[in-house]
From TrEMBL, chain A:
Start and end residues of each stretch annotated as Disordered: 27-50
Domain of life: Bacteria
Protein name: Extracellular solute-binding protein
Alphabetical keyword list: Cell membrane, Lipoprotein, Membrane, Palmitate, Signal
Pfam families referenced in this protein's UniProt entry, alphabetically: SBP_bac_8
InterPro entries xrefs: Bact_solute-bd_prot1 (IPR050490), SBP (IPR006059)
Organism: Cohnella zeiphila
Signal peptide extent: 1-20
From TrEMBL, chain B:
Organism: Cohnella zeiphila
Coiled-coil annotated spans: none
UniProt family annotation: Belongs to the binding-protein-dependent transport system permease family.
Ranges for domain ABC transmembrane type-1: 71-286
Principal subcellular localization: membrane
Keyword Transmembrane found: yes
UniProt subcellular location: Cell membrane
Protein name: Sugar ABC transporter permease
Length: 539, 299
């Protein structure tokens, strides 16, 4: 699925990248004048011209227009039609012109916009990775924000004062802050997936929720062989997930592995980063996964599955055990699923590996093209206030939610139980948070109402003792280190993905494990570990 | 004197100006950007201002651990596609040419070239559905004959065949059109003379029609070989997954990953330059060979 739209937009470019690069030549002149590492020095005067006020709303004396880039997730309608932005435009006096390519082509589009210097004024919704932020930041294409934060971002500043760890995480090695994060201060929302099992099937096969990997194997086998759906067909898929990555992540914890640095298959041990792709525990996990695959207990389409196919299977009620965030996604079978305590592995490891650290990367950046950085920062700071955060998740009192006597928020039932899905309705007309990465500081107050009517808030009790201790984002590094790490992790990641498939499918035997490890060594997995260890030590 | 000739025929020059402008703007001007293959491209400094890097990026590509594999895949898929995709349209055209019933002929022609208008995304979507291990058409047929279902999309040994034959299915009818046109260009007298001499249908195809088609075939073959390193990139990308990567990763998908997704423009341009150079050399070689061995060549 990832790729459908990508391909359409890319078709025109496929013949020659030189063409794409060539487009930028026209703007060389002003590119050079804009280079250098600081924001335009006349910043405050320019903003005075824009009429930014130090506090209160509207933000500006007379209306201004800013160009913004964000991505359109599958749940989203047009940004300009979202009630959140319409309301906020009235309040702030800032009109936004949106450029919002689909999720699939967003990376492509933002890279091309940067390479052709056709920049928006600001960028939302983690559209840039750590390495891109460092690259564009060091080239002066996105501007440092720290000098605006003191004066124009009171809410964000007080957050940084309260949570110095956040400041540490978002500060680049050159001392600059290039982006504002999304901060999720509510643990249940930071666990990306929960171990959900089909309880109806469990009682049908007369078994308890599995507590160990052996029991898990038995339960999944029973799901496969005893026709728990009771329709006489062998259509049951004992274990499935969105794709191979998420499916494997649901298994690796039983072998003591987790993702303590986002995207790097890394655990932190004795303060050192261990990229476990060459670890014996990984080998054991792979062998276990292969066993599941060979016995057809894992979805046989796991290597080619798209999100759509996965959700289709959920809606058909043919999946037994799966890592999933929202049981609502299972449609009419939603109530069949319940979270279990993550099973214990053969060596006693019991980790649930889906945890993000709650501080997003690259959720809001200002480019050098922005004539009103002060006003833009103030625009963003609103979402770090209680009122702004609520506007993102609950949008508007009366229309979307009501406030109960005890001060809690309650989203209208017809939205929560909408046939087309709650997040789809919210994304279509109201707000841009579905899909994740919304800017702001969000707490239980905002998050709990979105879970109303689901058992989600109770799930956390099942997994909270088994989450990794700390989880780091991909580090922000100096440009040359960042380049090195990107190269290493791209090559190693691709090779490891390919080999994982080969081991699981039996195309490569585990007898060849040593040569696989040797190849990783040759490709520099230890250099990668050193870079990551240094980054962790500095945190 | 000379000038008069230009002004006299100004309409012709005016008409030529458009294609010239097209080539200048879309083909030659972008070559200015090729220099970033030799530079540490920095977006803020632009193409001209970025510092030189020498052959660093070419080095990086040649020492890429999978260089041999992606080069091999590119060449093999391409040769396979040429062998199959070139042969069948010629056969189809010859067969169509033999059909007497005009309505039937038109019907077949339409049926075979309609798939050409489908987008690659749709074709791959169909392919994925047909080859699905959960009730896909192909597996239903295999099971009907008592075989075991095969998960085609993750078996790397089937990748090239699936790619080449889905391409054939889509483009066979379209590619046959040019041969049909060439066949109508063969003088009917030759054919009649052969009939008078008592040549069978098959002999007529062998000794009249195929020789008549040969110049067209040669030119198209040379042009096709000149694109040896460029293959149907989007369909390959869509069909790619971790499990078949060893058979499906080609130079162009690699360029896409490094250039567009990772934003490493200098590196991907270097790979692209290598790709174009290789194509260029092969085109010249193919043309040289064609000139030596037959009468038809591009120049």
């Amino acid at each position: 699925m990832r790729g459908y739209l990508k391909t359409v937009t890319f078709a025109a470019l496929s013949c020659s990248l030189a063409l794409a690069a060539g487009c930028s030549s026209g703007s060389d002149g002003d590119a050079q004048s804009g280079s250098g590492n600081q924001a335009p020095s006349g910043g405050s005067q320019q903003a005075a011209a824009g009429g930014v006020k130090a506090g209160g709303f509207p933000i500006v004396d007379r209306p201004i227009t800013l160009k913004a880039f964000s991505r359109k997730d599958p749940q989203h309608g047009e940004y300009k039609d979202m009630l959140l932005w319409k309301d906020y435009e009235q309040k702030s006096g800032i009109h936004i012109e949106w450029d919002t390519p689909n999720l699939d082509s967003a990376t492509e589009r933002i890279n091309l916009l940067f390479s052709t210097q056709d920049l928006p004024d600001f960028i939302l919704k983690n559209s840039l990775t750590s390495s891109q932020i460092m690259q564009y930041g060091s080239q002066g294409l996105i501007i440092p924000l720290e000098k605006y934060i003191d004066q124009y971002a009171p809410h964000f500043k007080s957050l940084l004062d309260k949570r110095p760890d956040i400041k540490q995480q978002i500060t680049a090695p050159d001392g600059h802050i290039y982006f504002l994060p999304s901060v999720m201060d509510y643990l249940p929302s930071n666990v990306g997936r929960y171990p959900l099992i089909n309880t109806k099937w469990l009682s049908k096969v007369g078994m308890q929720a599995p507590t160990t990997s052996d029991e898990l194997l038995k339960v999944l086998t029973a799901f496969k062989t005893q026709d728990p759906s009771g329709n006489g067909e062998n259509e049951e898929i004992p274990y499935s997930a969105h794709n191979i990555n998420l499916a494997f992540q649901g298994i690796e914890g039983m072998f003591g592995l987790s993702e303590q640095i986002a995207n790097f298959h890394t655990v932190i041990e004795d303060g050192k980063a261990n990229v476990w792709l060459d670890d014996d525990r990984y080998k054991k996990a792979l062998e276990f996964f292969k066993q599941l695959y060979d016995q057809k207990l894992v979805d046989q389409e796991i290597f080619t599955q798209t999100d759509k196919m996965y959700f289709g299977k959920l809606a058909d009620g043919i999946i037994g055990y799966t890592p999933l965030y929202q049981p609502r996604n299972a449609g009419k079978y939603a109530n069949d699923y319940d979270a279990i305590v993550p099973p214990k592995g053969p060596d006693g490891d019991q980790v649930w590996a889906y945890l993000s650290n709650g501080v997003g990367v690259g959720n809001f950046m200002i480019t050098k093209n922005d004539k009103y950085p002060e006003a833009t920062v103030r625009w963003a700071d609103y979402f770090f206030s209680d009122e702004g955060a609520t506007a993102v998740y609950e949008v508007k009192e009366g229309e979307v939610y009501t406030v109960a006597a005890d001060g809690t928020y309650h989203i209208n039932e017809d939205l929560l139980n909408s046939d087309s899905g709650f997040e789809n309705v919210m994304g279509a007309k109201y707000t841009y948070y579905p899909g994740g990465g919304a800017l702001g500081l969000f707490t239980e107050k905002q998050m709990l109402p979105t879970m109303e009517g689901t058992p989600m808030p109770t799930y956390i009790k099942k997994v909270q003792d088994y989450l990794p201790k700390t989880v780091y984002n991909a580090p922000l590094l100096e440009a040359d280190k960042q380049d090195k790490l990107t190269d290493l992790s791209n090559d190693i990641g691709k090779y490891a993905d390919e080999m994982r498939a080969k081991f699981i499918l039996g195309k490569v035997s585990f007898d060849d494990w040593d040569s696989y490890v040797k190849q990783l060594d040759k490709m520099g997995i230890h250099d990668m570990e050193n870079i990551l260890s240094d980054a962790v030590a500095q945190k | 004197m000379k000038w008069r000739e230009y002004t006299k025929n100004y309409e012709l020059y005016l008409m030529m100006a458009l294609p010239l402008a097209y080539y200048a703007i879309f083909k030659y001007w972008p070559m200015y950007g090729v220099q970033i293959a030799f530079k540490n491209f920095n977006m803020a400094q632009g193409i001209w201002g970025s510092p030189w890097a020498g052959l660093k990026y070419f080095d990086k590509f040649f020492s890429y651990y999978n260089f041999g594999a992606i080069l091999g895949n590119t060449i093999w898929i391409s040769l396979y596609a040429i062998a199959v995709g070139f042969f069948f349209p010629i056969v189809l055209a010859l067969l169509l040419d033999e059909i007497r019933n005009l309505h039937f002929k038109k019907l077949i022609q339409n049926v075979t070239y309609v798939p050409h208008f489908l987008s690659g995304v749709v074709v791959v979507g169909m392919l994925i559905n047909f080859t699905s291990i959960r009730g896909g058409l192909f597996n239903k047929i295999i099971e009907l004959f008592g075989g075991h279902p095969v998960n085609f999309m993750i078996e790397s040994q089937y990748f090239k065949t699936m790619y080449v034959f889905s391409d054939l299915w889509q483009n066979m009818g379209w590619s046959a059109i040019i041969y049909l046109a060439a066949l109508t260009g063969i003088s009917p007298e030759l054919n009649e003379a052969a009939v008078v001499d008592g040549a069978s249908r098959f002999k007529r195809i062998l000794h009249v029609k195929i020789p008549g088609l040969l110049p067209t075939i040669m030119i198209l073959l040379i042009l096709r070989v000149g694109h040896l390193f460029n293959i149907g990139f989007e369909r390959i990308l869509l069909m790619q997954n971790d499990a078949n990567l060893s058979a499906s990763d080609v130079i162009q998908t690699y360029i896409y990953r490094t250039g567009i997704l990772q934003g490493d423009f200098s590196y991907s341009t270097a790979v692209s330059v290598f790709n174009s150079l290789a194509n260029f050399i092969i085109l010249i070689a193919a043309n040289y060979l064609a000139r030596k061995t037959s009468d038809s060549s591009l120049w």
